[in-house]
Design a protein that fits this description.
With 91 residues, the chain is an all-alpha fold. It is built from four helices and no strands. The protein is elongated, with a radius of gyration of 20 Å. The relative contact order is 0.08. Its main location: mitochondrion.
Length: 91
């Protein structure tokens, strides 16, 4: 699980792209077997499903990033924060 998390954190855009393409494929496969829609409508619906899923994943990633930043105890980040706060006070 850690290997997957580290790969995703290093390749964020690739992860989102793979998720989007797989969601389009899954939606196309599902609608092909379930409904008698024209191919153009199937593609439109697949795109909408994939975009909704991508927005949900991006929202989750943003929340995770925010939580991770708030709970990190890395001394270098704290030092950078104190330096930027001190620079703001001097201005």
């Amino acid at each position: 699980m850690e290997a997957l998390q580290s790969w995703v954190s290093e390749h964020k855009l690739t992860s989102i792209g793979v998720l989007w393409v797989s969601a389009v494929g899954a939606s196309l496969a599902y609608t092909r077997s379930r409904s008698p829609l024209k191919p153009s409508l199937r593609l439109i619906h697949a795109r909408m499903h994939a975009q909704a899923l991508t927005l949900a994943v991006l929202s989750g990633a943003a929340a995770y990033h925010y939580y991770e930043e708030r709970t990190t105890t890395d001394p270098r980040r704290q030092l950078d924060h104190h330096r930027s706060a001190a620079a703001t006070r001097q201005d």
